[in-house]
Structure formats: structure tokens, C-alpha cells
Amino acid sequence: MAIVLPQTKFAAVNPLKSSQPLGAAFAYLGVDGAVPLFHGSQGCTSFALVLFVRHFKETIPLQTTAMDEVATVLGGADHLEEAILNLKNRAKPKFIGIATTALVETRGEDFVSDLKTIKARRTDELAGTEVVLAQTPDFEGAIEEGWTKAVTAMIEGIADRAPARSVETRRVNILPGWHLTVADIEAIRETVEAFGLEPVILPDISGALDGTVPDRWIPTTYGGTSIEDIRNLGDALHTIAIGEHMRAPAARLQDLTGVEYSLFRQLTGLKAVDRFVMMLSELSGRPVPAKIRRRRAQAQDSLLDGHFHFGGKKVAIAAEPDLLYQMSTFFLGMGAEIQAAVTTTGHSKILEHVPCETVQVGDLGDFEELARGADLLVTHSHGRQASDRLGIPLMRVGFPVFDRLGSQHRLTVLYEGTRNLIFEAANIFQSVQHQATPDELNPFLMREKDHDRGQASATGHH
């Protein structure tokens, strides 16, 4: 069991984490016809927007209530109402997801009551648009917490409380963690469908952030989970949550609708994927399809081919808790050693299960110090400077990845994703591997060279 070491610095010198409201907006972007709305200043929104655009290379419909000095002092309810109505009139969204920021949270306003009052007073104007709010101050938490709160808010605000459940339903709810890519979610959907089941994925960024170019300008997301599907989450046979931070939304959905859930800490590695596949087989009553069995055989072969390159290697990882757990267990399973593990917040219970002695809550400055002497760095694109300074190769994971194309289409889960990770990491190790020469492998020649060097240094000393 890992010991979680708290943050020791008063400021982040080289930040590792992104903010909680960004995580909430990320989740809202996985809903069809959505506009995420930051309740705060324009600057809060600008930072998040830049990171989203650089990572996905797509237009991102992120909006703000644009709080000014007067509104910050007197209260932002009027700004919130005006922003909601403007968005409704201009963009005509099916869904507005509000994420609060530190600016308004510090003042201590009652946002829940404010929104309830606005929705009651503007019922006619807001007809056809669902509006939910997640309280996500920047001064605590990170992407994981923001994503969790936004998904929980959507379930509480939209899902029917007492659904008319069908006994013969083949619908399965999938609640993916923030760290799953577009390719990951598409692969999960195809795998569920291969068993004759109907997946409802919330949030579904594979529809909204997959690089599809519409034939006209659309001011909202185009693709993702439909409002109707969110409303009918209670009609499902079962819920599958992926990542420890999705336990809370799954549990809340079970409380509201009675749909039981199963939690998967990760979907990388044979053991975890086998459990997922067997669950789908049990839920559907069908045997595992031949194409999935073939993918498993390919993953087994990649384990045999790749494990030679991992043995004895020291890996340093900096990531959000669930992604840290996924990558650390992957490398450990391949025979590598986790030299350093750094994360963004210490609240997640998954950190205790990270396979190393300690997990440091900190920034990339802490990561750089702990990673000295490692063979591989694993973090997002902001770790590239540490990689240059230390002379250690960098494997980019998580968010943001802005100096490489196609990060959203990178498959990291199920059998094929496990195979891809093995090849990617092994190829990095091979690219920096020192090739021994015949002279270096000759013990007698090396002994003579060491003797000559020793004599030369002794002469120079005298």
C-alpha cells in the first residue's frame, strides 16, 4: 500500500494539474447540443479554452458569465441569468452545463438557489434546454474532481427518478473516466455492441470531440450523449463505471434509479480486460465473439514480444490519480520499476493502490527532482522541459498533449490498447538503448582499459 505524501510547497512552480472547472467543462462537452458555461471572469475561461483547443485541435463552445469587479462584490446571480438567456437565444443549446470558479466560490454565493430561482422565473424562455450546475472552485481538486461533479450533476438534474424499467432491456450504462480518449470510448462501445448489448455512454466525447467537421457552423457540441439517453439512464440493465472517480456518479445513479453498478479501476492489462469481457458475456448471455478472442491472443503475443525491453527499467509517472494507477500497474506488470509517482490531489482512494512506496502530491518541479536517474518519464506535454533537462525520454499521456497530433485517437484500453501501450513504450526504450560494441563486451580488453585509465589519473594527480 502506497503512502500518500501531501504537498509541501505553497505554490506550484511548474504546474502538473489542470483546474476543476476545466474537468467539469470536459464532461459537459460529451453531451449533444451542449454549451459549457464558466461562472466567473473571462480569464478563467480563456485558460481552459486554450488548453482544450491545443489538445483537441477543434472548436470548443466554451462560454463565460464574464464577471466584472462590480458583480464580484455585489453578487453574480444577474450575470448568471443574463448569460443563460443569451446562450439560449443565440446558440439554442439542448443543454447548458455550469461550472463555478474560484472567483464566485470565494464569495460564498448560493448558486443552487440562484439557478433554481432563474429556472422557475424563466420556465418559458428555457423550454427545451436542460441547465445543470456543478460547484467546482479552482482552489481545490483537479480534472478528476471536476469531471466527477459534472457527471453527478447531470445524473441528478436530468435522469428520471422513477423510470419504467423493462425486464427485457439490453441497455448498459457506461460511465467512463476523464482519462479515456475518443478511441478508448469508441472501442468500448464496439466491444459492448459485439455482445448484442446497447451501450449508453455518459459523457461521450467520442461523438463530440472526434474531429468530425460539420458542413455548417454549429455553436454547440455536435454529437455526444443525447438528453433523452441521460433521462432514460434508469432503464438500463446495469451500469459499468471506469475509474475510481466514477464510483460517486455510479452510486448516485443507483440511489436514484435502482440500477446496480460495477466498478473497473482500469481497462488496461489482460486481467482487467478479461473481467470486463466476462461481465459483458454474463449480462448478454452470449459467448465471447471470435474477434475479441483474437484480440486477446494478439495482446498475449505482444506481452511476450515486449517484456524483454521493460525488465529493470525505472519509470517516473506524473498524472491524475486514476491515470497514475493505470500507467503504474501497466509498467509494473511488464517488469519495470516505478521510481517516482506524482499526482495532482490526495483525495482519491486509488492512490493507496499505486504500486510504489510513496505517491507525492505536487507539481512537475517535484516530479523532475524525483525522476533523476529514471529511464522513462510519463506525463503530459508540460513535462517536455524536464525531459530535455534530465536527458530522459518522455511518453506523453493524459491532458494536455499539444505537441503531438492525434492524442485523442490513441487507444489505451482493452486488448488492443494494451498491445499499443506495450509497443509504444518498448519502442521508446529501444530508441535510446545503448548498443554495446564487441570491444565493450570483451572483459579482458575492458580490464586493460580500466588499468590504463587508473594509471593515467594517478600520474596526473602527482
TrEMBL record:
Pathway: Cofactor biosynthesis; Fe-Mo cofactor biosynthesis. GO terms for molecular function: nitrogenase activity. Residues 19-429 form the Nitrogenase/oxidoreductase component domain. It comes from the Bacteria. It holds the Pfam family Oxidored_nitro. GO terms for biological process: protein-containing complex assembly. Keywords: Nitrogen fixation. InterPro entries: ChlB/BchB/BchZ, Nase/OxRdtase_comp1, Nase_comp1_CS, Nase_Mo-Fe_CF. NCBIfam families: nifN. This protein may play a role in the biosynthesis of the prosthetic group of nitrogenase (FeMo cofactor). Belongs to the NifD/NifK/NifE/NifN family. This is Nitrogenase iron-molybdenum cofactor biosynthesis protein NifN. It comes from Hartmannibacter diazotrophicus.
